[in-house]
Amino acid sequence: MTAHLEGQFVGGEGQLYWQAWQPDVAKALLVIVHGFDDHSGRYAHVAEYFSARGFAVYTFDQIGHGKSGGARGHIDRFDDYVEDLDRLIGLARSKSPGVKVFLYGHSQGGMVALRYGIAYPDRVNGIITSGAGMMLAMPTPAWKVGLGKVLARGMPRFAMANGIPLDALTHDEQMLALTRSDPLRHGRASARWADEFFRAQEDTLANASQLHVPLLMLHGGSDRLIDPEATRRFYASAASRDKRMKIYDGMYHEICNEVGRERVLADMEQWLNERL
Questions:
Q1: CATH number for position 81
Q2: Which long-range contacts (CB under 8 A, 24 or more apart) does 118-123 make?
Q3: Which of 29, 41, 47, 201 sits at 20 to 30 Å (Cα–Cα) from 20?
Q4: Under DSSP, is residue 81 helix (H, G, I), strand (E, B) or coil?
Q5: Which of the 8 DSSP states describes residue 49?
């Protein structure tokens, strides 16, 4: 039997909401890290899939997202996300001690997961990413990046619509309808967040050779938000001796919400089970 748990913990910048799907006996921990303008509730179907197969699944709403505190779409420092993830992993370990810990990060959450693996290699047994957010498919004009840097210093919380085209997320019309009507999506991005995000993109790609943990990198081949080339570049440079990459032809950005997502979940499950 699986119990659904939820609560709050203190993050670096405020109260953060977490939830978990905890089986009676867990064979491993799977910690899910959502993307930007996203939240943990959008991964309930993923959590239910893996908890039904014996994994304790933990996830949380990152600062400025979902049911957590903080200004919407704002971060003071990108690695605040990484440190909050470490706090969640500590909480999850306290409830399922003695089992392996795996991360699954999507989009920005994929970058957070990779940075966690570089910073804390002894605290995680493997990382899965989907559409890891290290390179935008449509490059941001240099003038806009420069303006963002100026605003990040003088008006860090200045926020605008983030411009994410929802029809680029998935071909699944039912999933799109749920996303469009989701009251927990904020649709915003602050100047400081943008500056920190672009810096983190460059830094993460530049430090791929510092990642040594087992790695599975997944990406939609028709992703119009995050360039699949970012996944290819990171994968090629990662020092992990146990690494695998798969590009799903025709899929958009949110491969776990795509038509045919059953293949993606099965691939993730197989990879995890092979490393228990």
A1: 3.40.50.1820
A2: 118/207, 118/210, 118/211, 119/79, 119/82, 120/86, 121/211, 121/212, 121/213, 123/86, 123/89
A3: 201
A4: helix
A5: H
